[in-house]
Amino acid sequence: MATIKLELVTPDKGEILSKDINMLIVRSTAGELGILPRHANLLTELQPHAMKVKMDGGETLVAIGGGFMEVTPEQITILADSAELPENIDVDRAKAAMKRAEERIAQYKQATKDSLIDIARANSALARAKARLLVKNVPFN
Ligand code: ATP
Question: What ligand 1 atom has the least distance to the C-alpha of 90?
């Protein structure tokens, strides 16, 4: 089966994954993308999401906290704001982050004017937490 090299790095942890894979399914700011070997050149921004990596006859999910992806026919390079493999995700921490984000969003919706809550930041924190729980297969509402 044809392969394409995946390099996934983050600023604080360096290399998270470096592997020949068969297919990658990511959520870009323009929508979901499936990347196969020999894909056309592409540069895009990624949303926080659970990215699907197909390799070695199986598949695994990786939590991505947003970032950028460059694709060439031979290689996919992702510079993510944060990224965690399933075995490195702390579920309780993600649940706590999700609760905090939901509380901030609720406060923002109730505030009449000039709320000090950064709603974009809260939405992004919520999306990161949900991606981590999805990767761990933990249900949430
Ligand atoms: P928190 O509020 O719990 O810090 P966050 O979404 O704000 O969550 P990030 O800023 O995305 O956290 O990540 C900071 C660092 O902590 C990154 O290295 C990231 O991989 C790691 N990290 C964040 N949440 C978790 C988690 N639930 N399990 C494991 N690592 C995590």
Answer: 28
- d(C-alpha 88, C-alpha 106), whole Å: 29
Q: What is the pTM of this model?
A: 0.95
Closest approach atom of ligand 1 to CA 83: 20
Q: Is the CB of 130 under 6 A from ligand 1?
A: no
Residue type present at position 36:
L
How many angstroms does the Cα of residue 81 sit away from the middle of ligand 1? Answer: 10
Please write the tens of the pLDDT for every residue from 121-140: 999 999 999 999 999 999 99
Contacts of 86 (CB under 8 A, 6+ apart): 60, 61, 62, 135, 136
Between CA 127 and CA 114 the distance in angstroms is: 24
